[in-house]
Amino acid sequence: MEFNIGKLTIFDELEKLNDDLYHPFPHKGICKIQDKFSEKLHEDDLLTADFNSYWMNIAGSLSYILKGKMKKIPQNQIDELKLTFFEVFPQYSFLEKEISNYPDLYEEYKIYEKVRELMLSYLFN
Predict the structure, then answer these.
(1) Considering the entire predicted model, what is its pTM?
(2) What secondary structure does DSSP assign to 54-116, as a single string?
(3) Structural domain harbouring 71
(4) 46 assigned to some structural domain
(5) Residue 116: inside a domain
(6) Residue 55 and which of 24, 40, 49, 75 are 20 to 30 A apart at CA?
(7) How far is residue 96 from each of residues 14, 37, 91, 105, 123, measured CA to CA in Å?
(8) Is residue 4 part of a domain?
C-alpha cells in the first residue's frame, strides 16, 4: 500500500485508528477456524496466542509513535512490523485466502494491517 501523504497526516490517521485496536478479541472467528481446519493445525499451534502477540506488537509500536518515542521502538519490534501475520507465522498460510470468511476476525485483521502499513510509512518515509 502506498501513501502520498505527509507524516503529519499519517500521524493523524494513526491517532484515529488507535481506538479501533482495542476491541474484544474475535474468538468466534478463531473458534470456527479451529473447528474447520483442525486437520491443518498442529497441536502446538496456538492461533489465538499468535494473533494476540502479533497484534500486540502493532499496538505497542503504535503507542511509542503516538507518544513521540519512535526512536525507542526496539529493533526486533520494527523488524516484525515489516512482516505480515502470515510471514511471521507461515504455518497459517492456508488461512490467508480464507480469513475473509470469518468477518469478526477479518475486520480486526484489516484494522491491524492498515495500522501496520501506516506505521511503516511513518517510520521510513
Answers:
(1) 0.88
(2) HHHHHHHHHHHHHTT-GGGS-HHHHHHHTS-HHHH-GGGGGGTTTGGGSHHHHHHHHHHHHHH
(3) 20-124
(4) yes
(5) yes
(6) 40
(7) 25, 13, 11, 12, 26
(8) no
Helix or strand (DSSP H, E) at 9 = helix 7-18
Residue keyed to cell 501475520: 85
Written as tens digits, the pLDDT of the chain (125 aa) is 444 456 669 999 999 999 899 888 999 999 999 999 988 888 777 999 999 999 999 999 999 999 999 899 999 999 999 999 999 999 999 999 999 999 999 999 999 999 999 999 999 98
Angle in degrees, CA 120, 109, 50, rounded to 5:
90
C-alpha cell at 91: 504455518
Contact 115, 14 (CB under 8 A): yes
Number of separate domains in the chain: 1
